UniProtKB/TrEMBL annotation:
CDD domains: SAICAR_synt_PurC (cd01415). This is Phosphoribosylaminoimidazole-succinocarboxamide synthase. Pathway: Purine metabolism; IMP biosynthesis via de novo pathway; 5-amino-1-(5-phospho-D-ribosyl)imidazole-4-carboxamide from 5-amino-1-(5-phospho-D-ribosyl)imidazole-4-carboxylate: step 1/2. GO terms for molecular function: phosphoribosylaminoimidazolesuccinocarboxamide synthase activity. It comes from Romboutsia faecis.
Length: 232
C-alpha cells in the first residue's frame, strides 16, 4: 500500500510492519518544486547509487535504514519516522550558500559547515539553527549533537570514497529517522540528487545542478558517477 509520495520517491508498506519499500521515481524538481521534469531512468540510477552509498556506510559502522535492494527502482528499508530536519554539510561553496551570502562558487572551506533546514515545503525548507529546532521541538539538543557527530563522520567517509573515483564532494543533504526502537538512523537517499559532485580535474558537475542550471544531460552525469563507483 502506498503510504507516502514525495517529489522523487514513493514509500510503500510491506507484510512486515517494521519494513517499508522505497520506490525511486523519474521525477526531478528544483527550486522548491518550481522547475519540474520527468527524466527517464533517473530513479534507477539513484536507487543503485544510494544502495552503494548505504552499503559503504554500513561497512563503516554507520546505522542506516537500508535493508536490501529489491529491484532496479526499489529498496527495502527499516521503518522510520523521518525527523523534520534536513541536515546539510558543505565542504566547498556552492548553491544557496553562495546565493545567500554573495560568495563565489568553488571556494574550499577550512572546515565543513553543518547546517539544518526545517523540512517544510510550504515554507521552502528554511534554514534554522539549533535553538530554533529545539524551540520548535523538531529535535532535542542531544539529538542534534548526535546528528552533527554522525554527519561529520559520514562526510569524512563519503569524501574519501568519492575522492578515490576522482570526485569532489562539494556538499550534500541527509535525512535521519527514528526506528521502532527509538534509535536515530540515516534514512532517505544519497545520490547526485542530494550531493554535489564535481570532477577533480575539470570541475565538471555530475549532479542535479545539471538540471537546476541546464548544464547538460542529467542522466549522462549520474551514469558517470555510477560507472566510477562500479569500477572503483
Ligand atoms: N539539497 C537537497 N534537497 C534540498 C535542499 C538541498 O538534496 O531540499 C542538497 C543539494 O543537492 C546540495 C546540498 O543539499 O547538494 C546543499 O544545497 P543548497 O542549500 O545549496 O540548496 P540548493 O542549491 O539546492 O537550493
Amino acid at each position: 500500500m502506498l503510504l507516502y509520495e514525495g517529489k522523487a520517491k514513493q514509500v510503500y508498506s510491506t507484510e512486515n510492519e517494521n519494513e517499508f519499500i522505497v520506490y525511486f521515481k523519474d521525477d526531478a524538481t528544483a527550486f522548491n518544486g518550481e522547475k519540474k521534469a520527468t527524466i527517464s531512468s533517473k530513479g534507477i540510477l539513484n536507487n543503485k547509487i544510494s544502495t552503494i552509498m548505504f552499503e559503504m556506510l554500513h561497512d563503516n559502522q554507520i546505522n542506516t535504514h537500508f535493508v536490501k535492494s529489491l529491484s532496479d527502482r526499489e529498496m527495502l528499508v527499516k521503518k522510520v519516522e523521518i525527523l523534520p530536519l534536513e541536515v546539510i554539510i558543505r565542504n566547498i561553496t556552492a548553491g544557496s550558500f553562495c546565493k545567500r551570502y554573495g560568495i563565489e562558487e568553488g571556494l574550499v572551506l577550512d572546515e565543513p559547515i553543518f547546517e539544518l533546514s526545517y523540512k517544510n515545503d510550504e515554507y521552502g525548507d528554511p534554514m534554522l539553527n539549533e535553538d530554533h529546532a529545539v524551540a520548535m521541538k523538531l529535535a532535542t539538543r542531544g539529538e542534534i549533537a548526535f546528528l552533527k557527530d554522525q554527519t561529520l563522520k559520514i562526510n569524512e567517509l563519503m569524501k574519501e570514497f568519492f575522492l578515490k573515483m576522482n570526485l569532489k564532494l562539494v556538499d550534500f543533504k541527509l535525512e535521519f529517522g527514528k526506528d521502532v526502537d527509538g534509535n536515530i538512523i540515516l534514512a532517505d537517499e544519497i545520490s547526485p540528487d542530494t550531493c554535489r559532485l564535481w570532477d577533480v580535474h575539470t570541475n565538471e558537475k555530475l549532479d542535479k545542478d545539471r538540471f537546476r542550471r541546464d548544464l547538460g544531460d542529467l542522466v549522462q552525469g549520474y551514469e558517470e558517477v555510477l560507472a566510477r563507483m562500479n569500477c572503483k
